[in-house]
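Weekly puzzle thread! Below is a chain. First person to post its structure in token form gets bragging rights.
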Amino acid sequence: MDIIFDTYRPKGFGTVSGYLFVSHPEELIHFLKQAFYAKDLNRTIHPTHGDIANCILKIGTSCIMISQARGEFLNMRTSFYLYVDDVDHMHERALEHGGDVVFAPADMAYGDRQSGIKDPCGNYWWISKRLEEKEYGE
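Winning reply:
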């Protein structure tokens, strides 16, 4: 079955990549740029509505896409697992730029230092660092 996934993917995209429809995409894009150092790679404006049809952001080595919610594509919320080198720094940075605390940075029993942030659009971000360079469950 691995052969079915052996296809070209643009740099920064994995086999599965997040795509969010949000009521306030500009607010989320601004937050992600300020809080998590996201880079705006590409933006398409809807020709009829004049808002964001698609915005590709790169955070670290991964890309996510964001669009204006409308019609059948309702505002949705999700959660992301964000691996970083300094959980405490990224947690504070997210708070400074409008994130809300879900839980403060702490060392977890499963081997991560982790915190939880809720972004201005209601998405959850689990900001994590492996405390040991080993796989989960080893």
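Puzzle host: Confirmed. Bonus trivia for everyone else. The beta strands are 19-22, 39-45, 52-59, 62-68, 79-83, 100-107, 112-118, 124-130.
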